[in-house]
Amino acid sequence: MPEAWWRGAVIYQVYLRSFADGDGDGVGDLAGLRSRLPYLSELGVDAVWLNPWYPSPMADGGYDVADYRGIEPVFGTLADAEAFIGDAHALGIRVILDVVPNHTSDQSAWFRAALAAGPGSPERARFWFRRGDGDAPPNDWQSIFGGPAWTRAPDGEWYLHLFAPEQPDFNWNHPDVRAEFLDVLRFWFDRGVDGFRVDSAALPVKDPDAAPDGRDPYTDRDGVHDIYREWRRLTDAYPGRMLVGEVWLPDQERLARYLRPDELHTVFNFPFLGAPWDAAALRTVIDDTLATLAPVGAPATWVLSNHDVTRTVTRYGRADTAFDHADRKHGMPSDLTVGMRRARAAALLSLALPGSVYIYQGEELGLPEVEDLPDELRQDPIWRRSGRTDPGRDGCRVPLPWSGTEPPFGFGAGTPWLPQPADWKDLTVEAQQADPSSMLSLYRAALRIRAAELGDGALTWLPMGDDVLAFTRDSGLTCVVNLGADPVRVDGEVLLASGPLDGDVLPADTAVWLR
After folding, report:
1. Please, what is the Cα angle at 268 between 31 and 466, to 5 degrees?
2. Where are the beta strands (DSSP E) in 403-492?
3. Which of 104, 249, 316, 493 could form a disulfide with 342 if both were Cys (CB 3.0 to 4.6 A apart)?
4. In the chain, what are the domains?
5. How far is residue 389 from each of residues 132, 385, 506, measured CA to CA in Å?
6. Which residues contact 502 (CB under 8 A, 6 or more apart)?
7. Where along the sequence do coiled-coil regions lie (predicted)?
């Protein structure tokens, strides 16, 4: 059997538009990413996960895919993508792509053909077209982005979109849809891609005609598992490849069904991502995660942030440190000094836990959320669909600062597509590389130790008080995190600490790795 590299991997999420701009147009691209691969290699990651790089009108940051077998021209060409995969592999970095099975773009060839063909046509059968109730939509479903989940076509029929109107949902009961996505997976596997992150993985199967039965008619329907069994059979034909699902479900037993041996390899751990900075809450999530996954033999994943959520430094500096998609707490004050200290400790906690870890670009730099973007520059459809009441996710998607003392901070020669704060001059890669106490230096040191001593495996809790998380890994490394207000004593050789220690005393909001 091939080595299951993904069980203990450190995977770095690249939001391509905001990573590095190689051609000077203000938008990140493949040329910029290729030029920064040595940075990722030095950081010590095992793989990169890229948000969608396919041709797209960008109504939702690329998640409105017009062609699953091409590259968005703003990012480069298919030849550039193949060269990037080769460059990454040469550095020992694997490549995971986003795949979006729930919906496509309204500019895709299939959907344009469906609109042109009219009601009752085979082309429309690939989507969810329905007659309305008079001038009202077929039902009262609401879009995840706000507003109705149905939009009326010029001929009077309505089509379903669980996200933006520019993102019509596929009908996964149709054999063309199933065959199309299997072919898309083959297309990229044949080009060397090592895995796929499955966007909105619980949503593809739905029943607009279902009678009310207490269950959500468009989330976690039983038929979704048939899709992933097909995908797993195909994936297993390519040794060493993997599938990770974006599955938001409160029911952990139903979540585990996606991880049966013939389905997805892993799923994202959203309860951990959303947990408050509280020892009891975090311990409960960690225990529940390991207990849920043990029966199906799947490894845990640990993630603190991504392109859809408030950045960790800002979230942990607030009075309410939990994250909830329904309330991003925009405008709630944040003490960034406290947030940075906790984010550093959280990094050591997540990297010491058994399983794989995802790092969202910029977390290793300690970037805060940018909450004062000019309204006219906001691009997230949530801003528009919410009636300009929810600023959306642009604040965690601001382009990275690489070097220099003023914007664009080495991101590229042009004006970045979202403005960078001037005070990011102290958070650039260049500034942090020279500072052994920086967040970047902490991440680099932690990833070196993790590669040598941690990864997948077991965890044994140690009793050190209600406000302390302490555990030992099989290698003998012990992680202690003080989430309380009072300092605690620790015993052992210090390998790495998230902040200064006072002898053998661990201050509040600080973590340490010991042997």
Report:
1. 125
2. 459-461, 468-473, 478-482, 488-489
3. 316
4. 5-100+175-204+217-443 (3.20.20.80), 109-160 (3.90.400.10), 457-514 (2.60.40.1180)
5. 29, 9, 42
6. 487
7. none
**Beta-carbon-side half-sphere exposure of residue 155 (alpha carbons within 13 Å):** 14
The answer to whether the CB of 429 falls within 8 A of the CB of 365 is yes
The string of pLDDT tens digits covering residues 73-113 is: 999 999 999 999 999 999 999 999 999 999 999 999 999 99
Q: What is the distance in angstroms between the CA of the first residue and the CA of the last residue of the chain?
A: 33
How many Cβ atoms from other residues are within 10 Å of residue 167's Cβ?
23
Distance CA 174, CA 187 (A): 21
- The pair of three-digit structure tokens given for residue 347, joined into one six-digit string: 């990094």
Give the integer Cα–Cα distance in Å for 373 and 362.
18
Residue 411: half-sphere exposure toward Cβ, Cα within 13 Å: 28
**Residues 221-234 pLDDT 10s:** 999 999 999 999 99
Angstrom CA distances, 401 to 181, 182, 283, 426, stand at 36, 38, 34, 9
Strand 301-303 and strand 356-360: the pairing is parallel
Q: What are 173-201's pLDDT values in tens digits?
A: 999 999 999 999 999 999 999 999 999 99
Pairing of strands 242-245, 195-198: parallel
Cα atoms in the 13 Å half-sphere on the side-chain side of 295? 10
Q: Which two tokens stand for residue 287?
A: 């225990």
SS3 content of the chain, % helix, strand, coil (to 5): 30, 15, 55
Max Cα-Cα span within the chain: 75
Q: Is 104 exposed, middle or buried (0-12, 13-18, 19+ CB in 10 A)?
A: buried
CA distance 24 to 411: 9
What are residue 290's DSSP bridge partners?
A: none
- Report the catalytic residues: 199, 246
**Could you say which DSSP state residue 327 is in?**
B
73: amino acid identity, one letter: P
| DSSP label of 502 | B
